[in-house]
Give the backbone structure.
Amino acid sequence: MKYVLTDKILNERGKPIPDEDGKDTTLGVAIQVALLSGMDGEMQPIKGLAKVKRYKLFTKIVGQSEVTLDADEVVMIKEAVMAFPTIIVGRVHEILDRG
């Protein structure tokens, strides 16, 4: 499935969520940060080959405005973003479920 990584992540009032630099958080940025975080949804460190898989997916996404993801990659992203606040998890899942 193809995804637009420039889609903005919106807060509960429908306004873009700013990142640390005050820029709008996009789907791509949220995914990249989640993949590189080193933590799973239970806030436990990821181990072994999971790190390599996350890095490979990160390199596929970084610098792109659109990306085609297979079902396994979507699952990996959904698991990675679980460490984020609820609103970001929900928004990322909504976008990924929409396709």
Q: What stands out?
A: The longest helix spans residues 49-61. Residues 2-98 form one domain. Helices lie at 27-36, 49-61, 71-80, 86-98. The first strand starts at residue 2 and ends at 4.
